[in-house]
Amino acid sequence: MASTPTTDYFPDSEEELYDDEPSDLPSIPINYNRGRRTSVSAESMAPSQDKDYVKVVIPKTQEQRKRIENSIENNFLFKNLDEEQYKDVIDAMVEKRVSNHEQIIRQGGIGDFFYVVETGTFDVYVSKNGAPPEKVHSYGPGGSFGELALMYNAPRAATVVATSDSVLWALDRVTFRRILMENTSRKRKMYESFLEEVPILVSLEPYERHKIADALESAVYEDGQLVIKQGDIGNNFFLIESGEASVMKIDEEGIEHELPGLKKGDYFGELALLNNKPRAVNIKAKGRLKVATLGKKAFVRLLGPVVDILKRNSDNYETITRNARQQ
Ligand code: 1OR
């Protein structure tokens, strides 16, 4: 049927995990779409003149299809595809076996493919202003890379090299743009300016914030609704997109103490995730509260670079609680 790519393409990738973990979120769960593969909105970012489009179909065995499904299962970029989009993506993917040390993408090169890692490991190098390349990231199974050049019609932003014999699935540029780009760039745009203003995230690279955007889900709580219940197991991390939240701590005698509230740009819910402890306080919406949340796995993976700051900040909680009790 379609343009079968030659076999010496150089795929690339970018990764992410969204996780089918338990969630703290309320009745309209943030993951309401999961598993249903309902259609995404049709705001057209992609050059998707569907009528003229010839689908890429690379014949594959059931076993190969299964392997692709497993590889993309936890990848945020493949969320929210409808059944047809999901099938089209799998049809279009090409298996690429690579050897240790093989270069998959070269910084400055032209973007042709987007890559998903089935097995193996990859390192990412960036050279800034002609300086020697520095390792900035690595990928393992489930990861994906090479979306940037395809999304922005830009040269490859980094070099990606296999660090073991590996198996990749490559998706051609046209299929990537037609199916995966719309949702991805919509989300990155939606959260971009907000994430730039979240104090805890300022030290991150823009690309790290993009990846957080891929993983975020928004949820809304009405006035008085409990977001976090003291004593519960914690599954999510929260950033306040708009509105305010009140914070209450119940002490051993059952007396409730009000702690300083939270506002736009503030975060909460990290403590239970960092320490694997029950939720330390109650957090409630004060008026309408909109939050962006990350599941635990995504939190660990994407906020790794700021964990020390989160931990340091949490040292203040004890002082704040002590002061509140004395009032
Ligand atoms: P691409 O099409 O530009 C290289 O081809 C790919 O490496 C790129 O898409 C991303 O998928 C992936 N900056 C830019 N690209 C990165 C980065 C990155 N990490 C992975 N890729 N970082 C910023 C470095 C200043 C690393 C952030 C952790």
Automatic annotation (TrEMBL):
Name of the protein in its database record: cAMP-dependent protein kinase regulatory subunit
Binding site for 3',5'-cyclic AMP 1: E147, R156
Swiss-Prot/TrEMBL GO biological process terms: cellular response to stress
Subunit and interaction comment: Tetramer, composed of 2 regulatory (R) and 2 catalytic (C) subunits. In the presence of cAMP it dissociates into 2 active monomeric C subunits and an R dimer.
Keywords in alphabetical order: cAMP, cAMP-binding, Kinase, Nucleotide-binding, Phosphoprotein, Repeat, Transferase
Organism placement in taxonomy: Eukaryota, Fungi, Fungi incertae sedis, Mucoromycota, Glomeromycotina
GO cellular component: cAMP-dependent protein kinase complex; cytosol; nucleus
Residues the record lists as binding 3',5'-cyclic AMP 2: E270, R279
InterPro entries: cAMP-dep_PK_reg_su-like (IPR050503), cAMP_dep_PK_reg_su (IPR012198), cNMP-bd_CS (IPR018488), cNMP-bd_dom (IPR000595), cNMP-bd_dom_sf (IPR018490), RmlC-like_jellyroll (IPR014710)
Entry-linked PANTHER family: CAMP-DEPENDENT PROTEIN KINASE REGULATORY CHAIN, CAMP-DEPENDENT PROTEIN KINASE TYPE I REGULATORY SUBUNIT-RELATED
SUPFAM superfamilies, A to Z: cAMP-binding domain-like (SSF51206)
Family: Belongs to the cAMP-dependent kinase regulatory chain family.
Residue stretches making up the Cyclic nucleotide-binding domain: 77-197, 200-320
Biological source species: Rhizophagus irregularis
MF annotations from Gene Ontology: cAMP binding; cAMP-dependent protein kinase inhibitor activity; kinase activity; protein kinase A catalytic subunit binding
Biased amino acid composition, Acidic residues: 11-23
